[in-house]
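User: Sequence in, structure out. Go.
Assistant: Echoing your sequence, followed by the structure tokens.
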Amino acid sequence: MVAFTPEERFVGDAAKFQISSNPLNTAFDMKRLIGRRYTDSSVQADMKLWPFRVVSQKNDKPMIEVNYKVQKKLFAPEEISSMVLMKVKTTAEQYLESEVKNAVITVPAYFSDSQRKMTKDAGRIAGLNVMRIINEPTAAAMTYGFGRAEEEKKHILVFDLGGGTFDVSIVVVQKRKFEVKAVGGEAHLGGEDFDNRMLDYCVQHFNKLYSPNLCVNAKALRRLRSECERAKRNLSSVVETVIDIDGLYEGYDFFLKIRRAKFEELNFDLFEKCMEVVKRCVAGCKLRSKSQIEDIVLVGGSSRIPKVQEMVRDFFVGKELCRAVNPDEAVAYGAALQAAVLNKEDVHIVMVDVTPLSLGISVSNGVMLVVVPRNTALPTRKETSVTTAYDDQTSVAFLVHEGERPLVADNDLLGKFVLRGIPAAPARVPSIKVCFEVDADGILNVSVHDRGSGARNAITISNEGGRLSIQEIDKMIADAEKFCKEDEEAREKHVAKNALECYVSNMKKRAMKAKSEDSMDADVAEDLISTITAVEEWLKDNDTVTVVELQDKLKELELKCLCLSSPKRFKFI
């Protein structure tokens, strides 16, 4: 979460604390926006719920529009994500007392090729060398398996239900080797959706009681959403809670008791959707029986919901759920383990991930020819052969798609390019080799080669779906450094201003106390109080003062107070 104000920028908790008063300029949920097109149905649905504004730019790219320092600004989702990463980087550097250059970033298992590449772009903008992109449930499995010495193969299922996405992975663990066998998920299902159901219910309740339409007020909706999220968390440990907001909208208070059973009723279809993903994942793993799953690891804050846990237990016929890992920390811990491996530290782990979605090309009649089936172990290289469709065809257009539907129109287009220079020949005579390579990050490269003429081409999916150009990324890197410098200056200003305000307040109290107790000459006391009051007025009238001016004013006041409060003239009690 990142917030923009007329004076500065806030990231993380600082942004969350002010969102109720500044909802239009607070951006969040970037996982649901990064790597997507503005016209995507999921983006359009989310835009109805987000308080901040999303606009369309070139290549159908969504951009976040905010007012920052009294100017209208547009930020790409990668740019907002990079601000969060930069905050994490700065926090780590302060703790480690050394520079952080490299990173392992986790993403939902069902992230597309475009989403993965744009996540790497976000890391680069933040000044990080992204060494590896790994799937979140895979990272959680590494956390589960680290420290265990399983001699026999053990199948575990990772159920990762977070704030915005849902993933399921089946992983075989043996002697610190982690081999992903199947993945499933929904890139648009998580705690935010449960909050939305609660919010809709509360809005209907309010609008039924009072005439004002709550939906038209972004600030009121944000306050109500925050309380719905709090109530959702409470209902994981109690059977009933209260949503109580004074003066929610146009002077009307809001009060509602909500029971866990009602929350479960509002979200039951979403919980069932989670279980459908689990069923598909188990089927895709081709196990003899679901009883072969020996452990179920719950990850993500929403996995704490009692009804979700009950449905998972019931599906696996009463099997106990593993509570050996912290749902909030498991993914980050697994990423740290992967970083240790890449850093060649003494951590012996082997991790084999898989492709979450099938990859292929469009052939005749709009059918998708799958080249890399889903759940293929990574990294991988797969080849297939195609030919021409009509006589004397000298070029072939290749459209690369990702998805599980038989027709390419129903799958995501990753990119397109043309192979030219094919010698004229009857239809179906030329032999063209198509090669798909997917690296350990799950990122795709495609090349084609006409065996007859030697003509070659390769796809660079750099600008499909609105991906940033190298020049745009470089500009954002420069902007990020500028924002970081501005943030540091704002922080230093806050520190300096707070120091001066505290000193002014303390000295004024002491001077007034000394005056009232006659421990100081009245004229001296009045002189001191007048000096301090003048500084108070100076602070009120000078919003744009610099750090140096604040520090100088503090030194000046300290000197005056020291002179005026010398032992000969001023004795503090």
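User: And one key feature?
Assistant: The chain has 13 helices and 23 strands.
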